[in-house]
## 1
Amino acid sequence: SATNELIRSRIKIKSMNFMRGRTFLNKYVIIDEAQNLTPKQMKTLITRAGPGTKIVCMGNLQQIDTPYLTEGSSGLTFAVDKFKGWPHSGHIMLARGERSRLADFASEVL
């Protein structure tokens, strides 16, 4: 359909492996599952931002599934801590999940 074609032409999905040396100019960059990135990986991605670029990092620290990361050592925590107080950044924590009551409960007890 025309909508899918428009989305494919406007949205690019890139692997971390191909970020070094790139500069994003006037782009929106969405870093999803950011809880599974190391601080070094997070820095690699954020420092690719050129003029006019906005970056959104999304993640849930309770869903870290990388064995060598914790809530305290995650790149998401690192970025939030480093950008606190900088007037050009913001941080939002959602109060509830959007999947289901079952998913919310499992997140709490498992």
## 2
Amino acid sequence: MGEFTKRQQQPYRFDTVGSFLRPARLKEARKAYEAGEIDGQALRQVEDEEIIKLIHKQEEAGLQAVSDGEFRRSWWHYDFMWGLNGIEKRFIDEGGQFHDMKTRAETASLTSRELDGHKHPFVEDFKFVRDHKSTDREVKQTVPAPAQLLQELLKPHNQETTQAFYGEDEHRELAQAIAKAYIDVLEDFAAEGAKVIQFDDCTWGRLVDIHLEDYPEDERQAKADEKAYLAGLYRYVNNLAIDGAPEGLTITSHVCRGNYRSHWFGQGGYDSVADELFAKEHAQAYYLEYDSDRAGGFEPLAKVGDDRLVVLGLITSKTGELEDREAVIKRIHEAAKYIPLDNLCLSPQCGFSSTEEGNSLTEDQQWEKLALVHSIAKEVWG
């Protein structure tokens, strides 16, 4: 084994994507709150107590960056969007389509042309973890990527509300308003001591799922043009926020193909988006799904360059079955053909509970997965 750089901040050689299965006590408290049996203060108390327990468990598991497990959220993305001034929660007719399943039918919609991100509730959530972790640990804070909000506002069910404030030819202006709100939030995170913020981004997972060969030949060019336009737009809004972040704040990106109760929505390798995502986006590290053949090969990692890191999501968070240790190690070395081994880290492929429902595994299996990641990381990088 060679000499490897000791990681001083996220991503660490042994890392997570962020969310954890909600404990039964928390689920029961949330149901009681929704039924009007307890108030918000009582729910917050249960959340606080369960998050403190989770922080201790993460530290005992050897994690250097610890999170609140997203225990206060219902969704991995909407709760953040709803916390921005100028965005509201709205119920719609149908949820999003995943493989063999639809999600709950909710969305985030515009209520104003101007967006503002100051005094976001997530900053208070960050402070809680900061104040309860050990001093030698770092806070892992995730938010949906700016591109995720842009994509949401451009979906058909939001067409009417979005076009009340932004015309069809004002996508870049909308992107600028979104980025401005994100920069507000990033400034507030940094003021409270945040060093790293992770953007969770499923927009690329949607794009890689556009397979031109599935379309009639006379429609393929138009679909290719649409895909290229959206890729450029998503990269544009993400870079506006990343480039506008306070000095000293690192932005990483988790790229996902969907994770709702162990179901997924997209499949396809990174090849078709590698130029925009890896060569042109300014994130300092990428957490990438690589737990199934839906993710394709490692060849696109050559576009990342030698100055950024990749966290290989080789351990699935969708099921409880443990991966073969030697097979995972072999895949790490396969990836190292395209990006230096010193620039690689290891994590589960996604969170264990991207929504409050959680994935199809037990809490014990969740921690067994992390123990496997930890032991493999120690063997590979020391």
## 3
Amino acid sequence: MILEKPWGVIKEYTLNQISTVKMLLVAPGGQTSVHHHRLRDDMWVILDDGLEVQVGEEVLHPKAGDEFVIRAGTPHRITAPGEAGRVLEIDFGFTTEEDTFDRESSEDD
């Protein structure tokens, strides 16, 4: 939900939902494994330019401020081909290790 105020805007990502909020920092040259979640959706808010995002078979080069919703069952990965980059991740649903399935390992796991 987006709320406009006299001083600016409030962007609300989750309200009274079961969710987990994380700040991911991908090191220069680092990448997460390609993985998917069986039970939960993820949302990524890209905070820095220069990252590469894989969602399903699509590889994207987002800009800071871009947002992605990754539905349960969709393989995904974040890569920092140059400098380090930050991503705000919001997990919707219960977060458990058993819910994450690796398709491909990465040395950075």
